[in-house]
Amino acid sequence: MERIRRHTVPDQVMRFLDARKRLLAAIDPRARPFGWPRRSGFIQPLVDAQLHAGLARFPQVQVRFGHSVESFVDGDAGVAVTVQPLDDEGRADGAPHVVRTRFLVGCDGGRSPVRNALGLPFDGKSESTRWLVIDIGDDPIGTPNVSLVLDPEFPYVELGLPHGIRRFEFMVPPGTPESTFDDPAQCVRCWPACCRRRGRCG
Ligand SMILES: Cc1cc2nc3c(=O)[nH]c(=O)nc-3n(C[C@H](O)[C@H](O)[C@H](O)COP(=O)(O)OP(=O)(O)OC[C@H]3O[C@@H](n4cnc5c(N)ncnc54)[C@H](O)[C@@H]3O)c2cc1C
Using one digit for the tens of pLDDT, what is the confidence trace for 109-167? Predict the structure, then answer.
């Protein structure tokens, strides 16, 4: 816990603001029902790295990066999982092999092939919008919390993360060509569709 905690912002408040930065709602849990902050911001790769290092305490656990679960057969004696080794480019690298196990856990992400193969539903739906995520170091703002600015024309998120990182997430207006996303000459406020609608910049 101590190793993970230094990569977190405990009790991170999430505020929902309108376009004029007026507060609409806030998520600000102070309770510690499990003994730890209820809501923490964190930098996921650093926390994941600590969890991965922690697995060294369990010699029976093998981690296999670069292996893809292709299919599985769920039988009375357990599950037979066909696994394909991949190269660095994600292409098949050698022959697939079968891993036999008592349980297969479908913790394989939002599009979970395991859950889909089992026909398990996943409630809710997400709008298909694209976002540009920018992390900057040496955070010049410094507040530890999260603001979601619900400007219908230009929604964005900004949050403070550990180690002096500030993250901005800008919703990309529909129709904006992807080639302009990471063009330093392109002011985010000047994304063509956005400015055309506003008739002005900013
Ligand atoms: C840009 C971005 C920033 C985010 N930042 C944060 C943050 O700061 N804090 C936060 O709490 N959340 C954050 N999130 C959300 C968070 O990443 C997800 O909610 C979380 O990772 C979901 O975890 P998961 O284990 O369910 O799935 P995932 O993290 O998606 O893990 C699924 C794993 O299954 C593997 N997998 C999939 N299919 C197969 C297959 N066929 N064979 C083998 N392996 C397979 C994938 O490679 C992956 O490793 C962020 C998301 C994004 C996109």
Answer: 988 999 999 999 888 887 788 888 999 999 988 889 999 999 988 899 999 999 999 99
Q: Whose CA is nearest to atom 37 of ligand 1?
A: 108
- CB atoms under 10 Å from CB of 58, counted, come to 8
Contact 68, 83 (CB under 8 A): yes
What is the spatial distance between Cα 191 and Cα 202, in angstroms, rounded to a whole number?
Answer: 10
* AA letter at 160: G
| Of 160 and 181, more confident | 160
Q: Using the mean position of ligand 1's atoms as its centre, give its distance from the Cα of residue 109 in Å.
A: 5
Distance of CA 148 to the CA centre of its chain: 16
Protein residue closest via CA to atom 28 of ligand 1: 109
Residues whose CB is less than 8 angstroms from the CB of residue 63 and which lie 6 or more positions away in sequence, other chains included: 52, 55
In angstroms, the Cα distances linking 202 to 31, 48, 137, 190 are 40, 38, 24, 7
d(CA 181, CA 131): 9
Average pLDDT over the chain, rounded to whole?
A: 88
What does the alpha-carbon distance between residue 188 and residue 202 come to, in Å, rounded to a whole number?
9
What pLDDT is attached to residue 189?
55
> How many residues does the structure list for the chain?
202
- Ligand 1 site: residues with CB under 6 angstroms? 42, 44, 68-69, 107-109, 113, 133
Asked whether the beta carbons of 46 and 8 are under 8 A apart, the reply is no
